[in-house]
Amino acid sequence: MTRLLVGLGLVFVVVAAQTVFTIGEWEQGMVVQFGNPKRIIQEPGLYFKLPGIQNLVRFEKRVLTTDARAAEYITLDKKRVLVDHVSRWRIQDPLQYYRRVRDQIRAVARLDDIIAARLRQEIATHNFLDLIREKREEIMATVTKATRETAKTFGIEVNDVRIKRLDLPDEVQASVFARMRAERERIAKRYRAEGEEQAQQLRAVADREREVILATAYETSEKLKGGGDAEATGIYANAFGKDAEFYAFTRRLQAYEKILSSDTTLVLNSNSELLEYLQSPGTARGSSQ
């Protein structure tokens, strides 16, 4: 009896597990009988289905994000660009979605194909600079609108499509960088040449000003030196005129001081004027030699 009850309990649990199911707030479901959709459930709660003959297919109700791989496109001015896009979408019509794409893997692949085709068509009508400047938002708005219209037939609502990254192919990048480097070097050479020309002009002006300053300083120094010499000569003449003997005497002493020292030996004539004050200071002549 106990085994019978246990067996009946297990059967009841299995049947209940195949009959009762719940739908969360983040999802929606579809009851399928022998491959044919029977019921769409979009509200959360507890539901029932026929065990064994009906299956439950769950779909996301939340906004999904698709991050596609980079693909190469050709612009209007024949530039090759690598573009990878990102899209945000949700399942709007589960029945249409189930009939056209079945699951999320096929839906993502189909959506990527649609966006890539629209991107290729739109990029081909714009120049490369339009993609990286002010027309980029306009281009993406056009792609989003066209993709949204096409995706409706698959039960998908596209919220937004954006270019995640836009690059040049590696070989094109190398040539672009080479041209940029050559252009920068040309500009640098021009700046260096202009700087050298300005430096030479500044050096020429500085050299000219230096020569003028030196000439003016030399002229001023010569004038000051001449004035000083004239003033000294006047002082000497005035002093000589007042007392010629004393002037001659002081000059002779200055000569003795410069000539005579402890290690100096002089051989002079006895009547030399140099010995005049040493022999007879009182009879010295008044001339200063």
Using the alpha-carbon principal axes, give the shape: rod-shaped
Low-pLDDT runs of 5+ residues are: 284-289
Q: Provide the helix percentage.
A: 55-70%
**What is the residue-averaged pLDDT?**
83
Protein topology:
Elements: H1 2-19, E1 20-23, E2 27-33, E3 36-41, E4 45-48, E5 54-60, E6 64-67, E7 71-74, E8 80-91, H2 94-100, H3 104-123, H4 128-132, H5 136-151, E9 156-167, H6 170-242, H7 244-259, H8 276-279
Antiparallel strand pairs: 1-4, 2-3, 2-5, 6-8, 7-8, 8-9
Helix pairs in contact: 3-5, 6-7
Short structural summary:
By secondary structure, the chain is of the alpha+beta class.
What can you see in these coordinates?
By secondary structure, the chain is an alpha+beta fold. It is about 55% helix and about 20% strand. It has helices spanning about 1-20, 95-100, 105-125, 130, 135-150, 170-240, 245-260, 275-280, and strands at about 20-25, 25-35, 35-40, 45-50, 55-60, 65, 70-75, 80-90, 155-165. Strands 6, 7, 8 and 9 form a four-stranded antiparallel beta sheet that branches. Strands 3-2-5 form a three-stranded antiparallel beta sheet, with no helix packed on it. Helix 3 crosses helix 5 and helix 6 (about 170-240) crosses helix 7. The longest helix has about 70 residues, at about 170-240. The radius of gyration is 56 Å and the shape is rod-shaped. Mean pLDDT is about 85; it is low at about 285-289.
